[in-house]
Design a protein that fits this description.
alpha+beta
């Protein structure tokens, strides 16, 4: 870049003062004038200008970087400049350092401008309900349980969350899908004249088909009448014959049986679905266990859609090599089995009738089934009755019912202007067909696709009581506010605190924990990769289910017991069941249900980072990467945005010949000057986690397909095929030069800086609660939150309460 010489007496052309300027690069004068609101370059004491210009070498040319506050990408880079200077990373250590006064002048000037530009970006985006919030809301509003998530387009994400306004666009296709989802939910509420009758169905595996093809060949019939199954129920199938739901609703399922020729309780998966040739809608609902040798009954309460069946799938049954029920005969087969005695299904169990949606939309009008166009179809499979609703004053009823329904849907009292277009729609539909039910249904679908329902409309500035009610409810219950919340004076801090506490004690806390951890810890991607079956034969569906429940159960325990955020780094307990405890090598745990377990000192467990779900989601199905895991720790635990690679620099540029592990590859990678600056920050957390494999198991050597030492081990009766390769090296050195020797040491270093973790959690909670990224101008409020949290011991429940009380939460 050319240099411009100004005379010693020549001031900056845009200056309001007469301070002379020496030698500067063309373009910098304008840049400084815009950023610091004083065009005089000497406001930086000249030295700070000098070290700023050094940044161009790292791929960042400040003279060319936009200062337009509307340019989000440029603003992000300016924040990065501020943070790197604040952290002492710029100028680089080997360069001449500016005076402390120069640094402070720079920080004050740039910081002030960043606050102004960050504030200007707030409150400009309306937040749409994401598909899970939409489903929760229409189900709670109408008193039904329909699944519409799978039929709605996937929501965009920002900062890991799928409820951020700027990422939630809407299209014509989405509107069409919303209409279809609303129609499905309203039909579920309206298309039933009488309360469904609860029935008790009972069945066994002793069906005519099984007697013909399976019992005596694959399965064993015992003297007590039980049928012993030696496989997982895929083939031959253990789908329970002649057991199927007629109506959607809540059911009680009871499974009676016991473990056969097995040392520990037998575990089974409860799978529901249509069980047609595609099995596309099969869902694993839960896992349960039955005792050894003694008949026992497991009772499970669950929601089932209409026309669904039950599959009881035994898990992890082992048999000796060279033996099978077919070869040996079921009566002589020495392998493990599960004895089925009886399965009953009771339901639907209806406690509230008619559904809330029917009360809201029909009032006192009575549903009546219309005669079918094809009478011979009535009662047959696939027949769907049509209804009408009878009322003496359809128009008057609509003018009473629709405003109330709109108020419930809009989460605020509806005005006459709100109701008018829907009343006109009702009138037009009723005039055409004189069908009160059809006209109300059409108007209701339109309401559930309207902007006031789909979007959380929050004006800039302080939120009022109703707006706070919606924000708090969608934060902690993931659905619309209930009547108590809508009537509460939430602008009063003590009332807001009491309502926050009430919602944290509600059953809907599970929704919050699931959705928050899906975004914060990326748990929604837990099934994005499948571990290689040859390398990790011990991985199974029960382990996957247990992984997710462990992390969600752990966060739930922190909230309910108000435990310190420091437990995220390291804890003396874990939420385990027997499957996870075996995986972790922790003795003395039984059962499939999670329980709080005190960890042995040498367990190598404690905190979120040593949990299998986190270790799986930060790896692929074959190997681990210190870079990927390092980025995960920086972003999601420490709240530090990892620096992007320099433009044009490939992932691995240095010579890597001779590298036998990824650790060696990265050591060579860091020999490159262009790579070292970022990798010395990113890699250390990943190195600390190298002692954990892709499914969260502890390891001292890497597994390999074809190289290394053979392993004498069996999983479910089969010899493993993987080999043991090079030893793991989990030692490293922080960017500050502090060394550590494995995860235990690294956790101690993190605990010393637990305020940073508390800040990260506070910021993630605020992002999730407000539906917007935190900007530079929010930092002061977040600093205040962290200080309050520290004074209270960083309790997670207290932190959530402080987030709700913050200005950021209570304002748009």
């Amino acid at each position: 870049m050319k240099k411009l010489r100004l005379s010693k007496r020549s001031p900056c052309s845009k200056s309001r003062c007469a301070e002379p300027v020496r030698k500067v690069k063309v373009g910098c004068v304008g840049f400084l004038g815009q950023i610091f609101r004083c065009p005089s370059v000497t406001a930086l004491r000249m030295k700070s200008l000098w070290f700023l210009l050094l940044m161009k070498k790292g791929g960042l040319d400040l003279a060319a970087l936009s200062t337009d506050g509307a340019d989000a990408a440029a603003l992000k880079k300016w924040v990065r400049v501020f943070d790197r200077v604040a952290a002492g990373e710029m100028p680089p250590p080997k360069k001449k350092q500016p005076s402390q006064d120069a640094v402070q002048d720079f920080m004050a000037a740039l910081g002030g401008d960043l606050v102004t530009k960050s504030n200007a970006q707030k409150g400009t985006v309306l937040r749409r309900l994401n598909r899970r919030e939409y489903q929760n809301t229409i189900n709670d509003l109408l008193g039904v349980k329909v699944n519409v998530i799978d039929s709605l387009p996937e929501d965009g994400r920002a900062q890991g969350f799928d409820n951020i306004g700027e990422a939630l666009s809407i299209s014509g296709i989405q509107m069409q899908r919303y209409m279809e989802a609303a129609e499905l939910a309203i039909n579920e509420a309206l298309n039933q004249e009488t309360k469904p009758e609860s029935t008790l169905q009972s069945s066994t595996l002793d069906s005519e088909r099984n007697r013909k093809d399976t019992i005596g060949k694959h399965w064993l019939r015992r003297e007590d009448g039980s049928i012993v199954v030696f496989n997982n129920g895929g083939f031959p199938s253990t789908v329970i014959p002649n057991l199927r739901t007629k109506h959607a609703g809540t059911y009680k399922l009871r499974v009676t049986g016991y473990g056969y020729q097995i040392e520990e309780p037998v575990v089974f998966a409860l799978i529901t679905g249509s069980f047609n040739f595609r099995n596309a809608d099969n869902v694993t609902q839960s896992f349960h266990e039955l005792p050894v040798g003694k008949s026992s009954t497991v009772e499970i309460t669950l929601h089932l859609e209409a026309n669904k069946g039950i599959w009881i799938s035994p898990q992890g049954l082992n048999g000796p090599d060279g033996h099978s029920p077919v070869k040996d005969g079921p009566d002589k087969y020495p392998g493990e089995g599960m004895a089925f005695q009886q399965v009953t299904l009771e339901g639907p169990l209806v406690t509230d009738w008619p559904p809330r949606g029917q009360k809201l939309l029909l009032g006192d009008a009575k549903l009546r089934e219309l005669p079918p166009e094809k009478p011979w179809m009535k009662g047959k499979s696939g027949y769907k009755p049509a209804y009408t609703a009878e009322t003496s004053d359809p128009t008057g009823e609509a003018r009473k019912l629709l405003p109330a329904f709109i108020s419930a849907a809009y989460r605020r009292p509806a005005t006459a202007a709100d109701a008018d277009p829907y009343l006109k729609l009702f009138d037009a539909e009723f005039a055409e067909g004189h069908n009160f039910l059809l006209a109300m249904r059409t108007a209701a679908i339109a309401v559930l696709c309207s902007p006031d329902f789909l979007f959380l409309k929050e004006p800039e500035g302080k939120l009022d009581d109703l707006q706070l009610a919606s924000r708090l409810s969608y934060f902690l219950t993931r659905s619309a506010p209930d009547a108590e919340l809508l009537n509460a004076k939430l602008s009063q801090p003590e009332v807001l605190r009491a309502q926050t506490e009430r919602l944290l004690q509600a059953a809907t806390l599970e929704r919050f924990v699931t959705d928050f951890t899906d975004g914060w810890l990326n748990l929604r991607e837990i099934e994005f990769t499948t571990p290689d079956k040859q390398l990790y034969p011990e991985y199974d569906e029960l382990l996957l289910d247990s992984m997710l429940r462990e992390t969600r159960g752990f966060i739930t325990e922190l909230i309910r017991s108000n435990l310190s955020v420091s437990n995220i780094i390291d804890s003396d307990f874990a939420m385990l069941n027997k499957r996870l405890a075996n995986h972790y090598g922790i003795p003395g745990v039984s059962g499939v249900e999670l329980q709080k377990v005190k960890l042995p000192p040498d367990s190598h467990r404690g905190g979120v980072l040593t949990q299998a779900s986190i270790l799986k989601v930060s790896a692929n199905g074959t190997n681990t990467s210190p870079v990927v895991r390092g980025v995960f720790v920086m972003d999601r635990i420490l709240g530090m945005e990892p620096p992007p690679p320099p433009p044009g620099v490939p992932g691995v540029e240095p010579d890597i010949r001779g590298a036998t592990t990824l650790r060696e590859l990265l050591d060579k990678h860091r020999n490159s000057e262009t790579c070292n600056g970022c990798h010395r920050v990113i890699d250390p957390p990943g190195f600390a986690l190298e002692s954990y494999d892709v499914i969260g198991g502890w390891r001292e050597r890497f597994r390999s397909i074809d190289q290394g030492d053979k392993v004498e081990l069996k999983v479910e009766g089969r010899k493993v095929r993987y080999r043991l390769g090079p030893p793991v090296d989990a030692a490293g050195e922080l960017s500050t030069g502090t060394p550590f020797n494995g995860m235990d040491d690294f956790q101690k270093l993190l605990l010393a800086g637990q305020d940073r973790v508390a800040r990260c959690v506070a910021e993630k909670l605020l992002v999730f609660a407000t539906g917007r990224p935190m900007g530079f101008s929010d930092r002061t409020e977040i600093d205040k939150l962290v200080a309050e949290s520290k004074a209270k011991g960083h309790g997670l429940r207290d932190l959530i309460d402080s987030v709700v009380q913050s200005e950021v939460f209570r304002s748009k």
